[in-house]
Amino acid sequence: MVKKYIQNFIKYTPLLFLLTSRDFKLKYRRSFLGVLWSMLNPLLIMVVVTSVFSVLLKVKASDIGMPFAVFYITGSLIFNFFSEATSSSMTAVVSNASLIQKVYLPKYIFIFEKCAFSLINMLLSAIAVLFVLLYYVIKGEVTVHITIFLIFIPMFLTFLFSIGVGLILSTLTVFFRDIVHIWGVILTIWLYLTPIVYPIEILKSSKIDWVVRLNPLYYFVDDLRSLMVLGEFPCLDHLLIEGVVCFFVLVFGVFLFKKAQDKFILHI
Amino acid sequence: MEYKNDDVAVFVDNVSIHFNMSSERITSLKEYFIKLVKRQLFYKKFIALENVNIKIKKGQVYGIVGLNGSGKSTLLKVICGILKPTYGEVFVKGKISPLIELGAGFNMELTARENIFLNGAVLGYSKKFMNEKFDEIVEFSEMEKFLDVPMKNYSSGMVARVAFSVATVVKPDILIVDEILSVGDFRFQEKCNERIKEMMKGKTTVILVSHQMEQIEKMCDNVLWLDHGHVKMVGKTREVCEVYKNS
Ligand SMILES: Nc1ncnc2c1ncn2[C@@H]1O[C@H](COP(=O)(O)OP(=O)(O)OP(=O)(O)O)[C@@H](O)[C@H]1O
Ligand SMILES: [Mg+2]
Description:
The structure holds 2 protein chains of 2 kinds. By secondary structure, chain A is mainly α. Chain A has one domain (33-266). Helix content of chain A is 77%, strand content 0%. Chain A has helices spanning 2-11, 13-29, 35-56, 61-64, 68-90, 92-95, 97-100, 108-139, 152-175, 179-192, 209-214, 216-230, 236-267. The longest helix of chain A is centred in the middle third of the chain and has 32 residues, at 108-139. Chain A is globular. Chain B has 2 domains: 1-95 and 174-187 and 198-247, 3-Layer(aba) Sandwich (Rossmann fold); 101-171. Chain B contains 8 helices and 9 strands. In chain B, the strands form 2 sheets. A 6-stranded mixed beta sheet of chain B has the order 5-6-7-3-8-9, with helices on both faces. Chain B is globular. The two termini of chain B are 40 Å apart. Chain A binds chain B through residues 11-12, 14-15, 17-18, 22, 99-105, 175-179, 182, 262, 265-267, and chain B through 19-20, 25, 27-30, 32, 80-84, 96, 98, 100-101, 104-105, 107, 110, 117-118, 120-127, 130. The complex binds adenosine-5'-triphosphate and magnesium ion. Adenosine-5'-triphosphate (ATP) is lined by residues 19, 21, 46, 48, 66, 68-74 of chain B.
């Protein structure tokens, strides 16, 4: 049974590869700076956000253990990936309607492809993050540790989490198109509830502290910062929470998608 | 559960397909709640196929005829696995090449070269295999000169040529053809017929939908006549065609 699924997946990897490279070509063909843009964009936003928020919130580097610019860009790396991967995978089934109506294909391929493409974009942006890190290392404000080689762990967990969410959202979108708008609003709220421009310690005594602690993205962001900048290994209960959340979201997503996929063709 | 009989390639077991034909299909959450509150959530059922039973033997060329909207394409989609039957089951033995619609899986913005690879991947062929077969595909389609032209600039006959060439590059166990041969010019039609005949010799089962009775009469062994989703008649080509044409 499982073997059959794996065989089927392997059979369609060339398609996965072609669809991803098509997305890549379409995204970067028209823009003047090409791939460079993916790296420059987070840097420019970082400069703006840093100059505004570090003044506004008066966050001291000693409180967060790193310069604000590093703090911000590491957090937004994870969040931007999640936001891009889920928004693009939620329309993946609907926008491939013509294909789904004409040939048999495993439909999860389309969600997988969108998440994989967003992962590639995240890795490109990660290069920009490394440059920022290098800048502060040279300035002597940051030291890099061996743990930096483990940053793929939170990245990969976010990837799994995004696939799960993407499967759920794409299923809902087939039946209710206005989910797309609702998700836009949810993402905005989610962004504010993730400690990206503020350290979670600010919320210590407030009511929304527990909300942020329910937010899986907080753990991914926090672990990325620990590994990349602070040289700390994420604590065990973090990893446990992340593992459990990824597992359940993924299982629920697969279950829902599998249950509904035969009806897709009647609604797209 | 598997269908045991060895020389049956396709077994359609009491299949019914119902579509939801509400005049306004609900596509948004807002609508859904409004209708739910107003108690207006009706579903109008449309029966596209009802209790269809067919057995197609290996190596047969099987024709399907019927008026527009009688459910021919729907039946083919069920056999390919694109549509899941509402009731009943379908058993298929072997690899299917579907030619359901012109250029299924073609992206008209891309060139023919890119589309050939994309289409191959959609059909589940490996990259290596496509590299090996690329020249053969191009040669058969006779589109060498237009390889790097976006396919939106192709005529429908040219698209059909490329589509047919990709879909038939492997000898599938089951080839499904839905009216697409009629767009090619007579020379290409002859070439396609040649290839289909070649496949029949190689034990490929062919399911053919066409409105050209001549073509059906020339190629098929058995014919199924669909009428409003019901099987009106099955049998030897000559008998069915006789009755169908005079109806
Ligand atoms: N996705 C769908 N939703 C609702 N109704 C559908 C859907 N697909 C097909 N139908 C209906 O099912 C019926 C059969 O359609 P089908 O395409 O199988 O006809 P056909 O025999 O292939 O006709 P033609 O000769 O014109 O190709 C039609 O009345 C059509 O309106
Ligand atoms: Mg049809």
